[in-house]
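Example 3.2
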Amino acid sequence: MPRVKYRDSDVSLMARMMRAEAEGEGQQGMLYVGNVIVNRAVADCLDFQDVRTINDVIFQVQGGNYSFEAVQKGNLFYQRARETERRLARRNLENWRQHPAKFALWYFNPFGPCPATWYNQPFTGQFKQHCFYEPIAGTCASVYSG
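Structure, written as tokens:
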């Protein structure tokens, strides 16, 4: 059973975002970005109480900006999804999760060492240039159970 309901158009949308955000980090890096996308769709806490679909997650606006920079600035995001990334997106949607992004709701590329916290959320690990952060224990049970 998939972690979140999805349609073929969601697979393509998610694949495009995974590529735009992490193509330089290979398939593993794209899978980690996919973990964060799906985690946000299942999270019923913090900044993600009103997002339930892949489309909601990708086009969420926070503080007047899209949550994912690639929506606003990303040339790769607006290219067609390739089958390779579509396969990766399906894996995430169906249940692939792995540390350091297994329960992560945030990631970013600091162009330096990963800070111990990101907006007060604890650092869970790094893959290449991306740092991953999950919610403080006890603040978002749906991420850990979904």
